[in-house]
């Protein structure tokens, strides 16, 4: 009994360490991206090459447990519909989400952008109710209300905002990026694609990267002629640890804790962004924004707690996930 208890404790500690590491890396991406944007990198070029490198770094992970690389990326069960949906997910999840996010960071702080993006689970709950008919329990409804209030405080709602301006534009773009992420999540959930987790991640990042790079070069954007060693360091951090690494650890956490339990802690990412921005970017945060961030964190926890499986396939997946722990 004691040995079982010790093993369980170690498993819980490992789960939380993995989760904290993943969300820390997610949060760091906003700070690294903000630094490079401030130093003259254009958003689309930065995003395109970031995810192109991140997709290549995913290849070794695709090969784990797979004997044939081509079979892993192009499963025999995948049809034309599946490939069209993968392209759509890539355009939404990588191209639209990250393109809009980095565009927003030209007008608002990295902390505000992170808080707005990670309202994603709130929009997943709302859109899931509208388009998939998923139930909303009292705790989830309370979470949504707290989330709306938290967003209002986090972005600093004030009368002057409604007269327009670049700050308001940046905040609207940030929320739209979260909506695109939610849409991609629901499509992925509904589609039941026959791709492995890492194969889907590879295609998603590669398709999004290529789309963003095409737009960037058509618009006349170019990679900077001179890049310092420090800038290369920030870019490589952004591409590999903060992209491939964060996703990798996140999927490990999902396997250890299950989707419902793990996703409730996603609010840690904007919290880490705020902390890192304070130390690295000398950013400040008001008490109202801090309270807004806390409300969003509470909202995400309420939205994601005790969410039941919606159909037989999801219940089977939950049982299998529990068996792997």
List its salient traits.
14 helices, about 325 residues, globular, mainly alpha
Please give a structural write-up:
This protein has 325 residues and is mainly alpha-helical. Helices cover 77% and strands 0% of the residues. The chain is built from 14 helices and no strands. The protein has helices spanning 2-38, 43-63, 69-73, 80-104, 110-117, 120-131, 138-154, 166-191, 197-218, 229-257, 259-263, 268-280, 287-304, 312-324. α4 packs antiparallel against α8 (166-191). The longest helix has 37 residues, at 2-38. The protein is globular, with a radius of gyration of 20 Å. The two termini are 18 Å apart. Residues 308-314 and 318-322 have low confidence and may be disordered.
The major pleated sheet works out as: none
Average pLDDT, rounded to a whole number, is 81
Approximate helicity band: over 70%
What integer value in Å does the Rg equal? 20 Å
State the helix count.
Answer: 14
Give the distance, in angstroms, between the N- and C-terminal Cα atoms. 18 Å
Task: Draw up the topology in text.
Elements: H1 2-38, H2 43-63, H3 69-73, H4 80-104, H5 110-117, H6 120-131, H7 138-154, H8 166-191, H9 197-218, H10 229-257, H11 259-263, H12 268-280, H13 287-304, H14 312-324
Helix pairs in contact: 1-5, 1-10, 1-12, 2-4, 2-9, 2-10, 4-8, 4-9, 5-8, 5-12, 6-8, 7-13
